[in-house]
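Lines hold sequence, tokenised fold; shown next:
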Amino acid sequence: MDFEVVARDQNSSARAGRLVTAHGVLETPAFMPCASRGVVKACSLEDVAVVGVQSVMSNAFHLLVRPGAETIQRAGGLHEFMNWPGVIATDSGGFQVFSLADAKNITDEGVILPSPLDGHEIRLTPEASVQVQNQLGADIIMAFDECTSYPCSHEDAARSMARTLRWAERSKAAHNNSAQALFGIVQGSVYPDLRTQSARATAEIGFPGYAIGGVSVGETEQEMFAAVAAVLPELPEAVPKHLLGVGIPMQMIEAVAHGIDLFDCVIPTRNARHGLLYTWEGTIRINNARYRDDFRPLSEQCDCPACTRYSRAYLHHLFRLEEAAAWRLLTLHNLRFFAQLMKQIREMIPTGDLDQLRTRVVSITTS
């Protein structure tokens, strides 16, 4: 992996870059929709590529559970298995430590997690997580980490952060696929002193890129950006920075202004399946009865399949019927909006117009 900063914003720490991988160039800042189980829900990956998505984020734990890392390796790796020619990142399973594991089953050695399929015990360690990700063959992989809950005491956050640092060292030692870039993950909950300490120590271990984890788990926006601000000055400047699990448009713009390059989140796809759509004219809740006789497209400024072929009335009809076609079309629309948003961010960084985009996005997402 090679990363080059090609432009900077004169009014903030935002930068545009080119992330070169074995599967093509990723223009940054970039958003990765979640393909946790090897698929973006309700869509084919051909659909996803058509609306301008450059990269996707899969999950090592979910793919370990089904179909299994060995199966994907025999298929030729995740790119071949999914038939996705672009960039793929994989999360380590660290978030599942937060969401699935019982606290008593988390030790310095690793974690015991229940299988979502049948409840049998799965033992996940830094070595096992990295081995699975090596087998999957994604371009960017994540060190195994412990994501703390919110609220979390300073004492518990410090203990968890220290464990994540030990796991980072073990993850790096276990990594044996030179075609993949292993990112270290910074933790520390909402405490700036712990975030600073974690960032410095993770940078000392040394990784080609870094992710900020443990955010967007219930903390306030102010707390999240205080954590981001504490982390970024401590990391090497000339490498990519990924903010894990963040996908609210205004939060992404603000994070870019701080110096973040990469994002992943379920926001656009999950919201689409629940009928919440982003447009450049304002947000739409397609389930609302007002759209029953509205024969306009979702957005005059969007060229996705939903907007170029169908009316709001028809999409409202499909959604009320709970047709799979509605979930597909609405998901593609939101993904197209996010692709357009990231493209505009990249274009406005060198011109110094990022504040104008921020103002516009505030107006449309609060309408």
